[in-house]
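Reviewer 2 asked us to include a model.

Predict the structure of this chain.
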Amino acid sequence: MKDNPFLQFMADQVRLTGLLIKYFYLHVRYLYLLIRYCLLKIEGAALIEAVEIWYSIKSMSKENRIIFAACIAVSIYGLALVTLIRL
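Predicted model (structure tokens):
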């Protein structure tokens, strides 16, 4: 194989192509892991906010909880109506 320069050239090209494919794969994998890391941080922040909201709701009086639940329900129904209108 070392005697034939064409075969040596083709082997080098195949090796180079394999290395380029691995290089691009590693970059795609890096971006994937970076996105997952950011999503994990966002989920953690959302969980902390949910716990804070839960304890603030728990500390409300019964009347205030009912008013809060009504406000949330009206906003959810409003979003559902807007979504249905846009479809």
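The chain has a mean pLDDT of 91. The radius of gyration is 29 Å. We have added this to the supplementary material.
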